[in-house]
Each structure stands twice: as C-alpha cells, then as structure tokens.
Specification:
single chain, about 120 residues, alpha/beta, Oxidized Rhodanese, domain 1, 3-stranded parallel β-sheet, 3 strands
Length: about 120
C-alpha cells in the first residue's frame, strides 16, 4: 500500500504592525528627517562641539534655578523657561545658536524654552 502524499500546509505571512501604514516615499522621509535635524541634536554631538571649542554655541538649562544650582552641564547658562522675555534675554547674543535642555527627553521645559527663545528671535 502506498502512503498518501504529505498534506501541504498553507503558509500565511504573519500580520505586520509595521507595514499597516505604508512607508513614506524616500523624498518625503528625507524632508521629514532633515526638518527634524534642523531643530534637534543629541548629547554626544553637543559634547563633541563643547570639547572642541566650537564658537557660537550656547548650552542653556531651561530648568528652575534650584535645579540648575544642584547640577548642570558644564558651561551651560541658566535660563529658566518660565522667565524668558525681552528683558531677561537682553544680555544674550543674537548670533549664538542655543542648545536647550531640561531633565530628560520626557521633560518639555526644553521645548517650551526653545519655543520662547525662537519667538524672541533667537536661533535654537
């Protein structure tokens, strides 16, 4: 007696959560990431530039004065975002590029401070 042929199991590709939304056209993706990089940087690049003495770069701590006093990035200036206005920023260079930060990426004091500085005409 001849055994029956093996049953072929239908293979179904697993559902992809990533591919539920089609990927952007490469040019759209390029423009998106170029725009993102125009307003964001990372600590490693900032540290590199600070150690290299790149001119025109100002690191600004957007946290309250008490937090700045407890510890801050070496060379950073304290600019609590809640106090940013024409008067409190009059002494700042308009030629500098301001890299702002707060406690961590989840803290939005940096974003709020960057928005205020940009509103006041500073490059951030």
């Amino acid at each position: 007696m001849t055994p029956p042929p093996p049953r072929l199991l239908a293979t179904v590709a697993p559902h992809s959560l990533v591919l539920e939304v089609p990927a952007a056209d490469p040019e759209i993706a390029r423009r998106h990431y170029a725009a993102k990089l125009a307003v964001e940087t990372d600590p490693s690049d900032v540290n590199h530039d600070l150690e290299a003495g790149v001119p025109g770069l100002m690191v600004a701590d957007m946290r309250p004065l008490e937090a700045y006093a407890e510890g801050h990035v070496a060379g950073a200036v304290s600019l609590p975002y809640r106090s940013l206005d024409e008067e409190s920023t009059a002494h700042l260079s308009r030629d500098a590029l301001y890299v702002v930060y707060c406690w961590d990426p989840g803290c939005n004091a940096g974003a709020k401070g960057a928005e205020r500085l940009a509103e006041l005409g500073f490059r951030v």
